[in-house]
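A further point concerns the way the authors explain their paired sequence and structure data. Since the whole study asks how a given chain folds, the encoding of that fold should be made plain. A single example would do more here than another paragraph of explanation. An entry of this sort, consisting of the sequence and the corresponding backbone structure tokens, reads as follows:

_____
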Amino acid sequence: MTLLRILALGSALAVGGCSGTVNRGVESVHQPVVSRAAYAFDVAAGPGGLAPGERARLAGWLETMRLRYGDEIGIDGAGDEPGVQADVAAEAARVGLLLADAVPPTPGAIAPGTVRVVVSRMTASVPGCPDTSRTYQPNFEAQTSSDFGCATNSNLAAMVARPGDLVLGRSAPGTTDTMVNSKAVGALRRAAPSGNGGQVTNSAGSASGSSGSSKQ
């Protein structure tokens, strides 16, 4: 009876030792995952542009979104009107963005006489990290630890300026555009100091428009 109990306990320990994340190679199983969220905001269109007061509403919404490098903004609906495009482009330029040629789909129908402004934001993260599921277990197969790669890939996901580049990288242009390189420097120089009401760090706060948000 005692022998059977010992064998049963040994089998249970063997099964328990096989649990947890398995890293059989030198390439970590914990890889960055890129997700995209689309935030929609509907504004009324008028003759020759946005309706009176709508441009101020749009400016306030863009301010609460805390747009940053890598975000994209575009128009859905009656965006082919030159006046509407000009008004939205002017507000986008105030936050340092250009209008995108295409926008991701958003739920809900666009009411007649309105224009939907869509902000697309990508984020990168490494799910399952840190992973200590096999840190203290015996390893008789010379595998890397369950947490292998978490630090490197998590830092990469946090530091990449455009998370979408992790999915599809960009080739270097043949020539260097000094205007692109100096754009961020100029924005920092024009920004108000943090002690005088300027933005200190990037906030993780979220904002919602009249049509809410959708994730893909």
